[in-house]
Amino acid sequence: MVLNNIEKLIEKYNSAETTLQEEAELKAYFKSNNVAPHLEHYKSMFLFFSESKKERYTKDVPLNTKKTKLYQWISVAAVAVLMLGFFIPNWNNEPKTLADYTPEEQELYLETKQTLSLISKNLNKGLLGMNALDMTGENLSMGLEKASYITVFGDTTNKLLKN
Hints:
By secondary structure, the chain is an all-alpha fold. It is built from 5 helices and no strands. Helix content is 72%, strand content 0%. Among the domains are: 2-54, no CATH class; 107-162. The protein is elongated and about 115 Å long.
């Protein structure tokens, strides 16, 4: 009777349908010395499972809890460099006038100013020409639209005359 029960439990175990209590019964049976000869090959498996539960990892695992403060100091240094970059150019708050520059620099400044003024005037003239072209383009598109009415009128007239 016990052997029949063990065989049924092994079938359930292989189908992964056993409960923890039934698995404990199987382990207890295979730990004993009176295992049926045709079930001997299961004995080593269940003994392995019970022995492997007893194994423990005993070595220490070192954890690196040291954090270097290098990154913190790098960020502080970066902020300091940025602050210096903003404030050093504005250290002397007196604005410079044209008289503070050398005569050559003043002359170059005036020539550049005249050149940019001339370029601006010519660009404005070109822009007026572009406005005229834009108006011409609008008039042309209106003419094309009205010409399309003529083709519609011609198509209608042809239909009337054919009937």
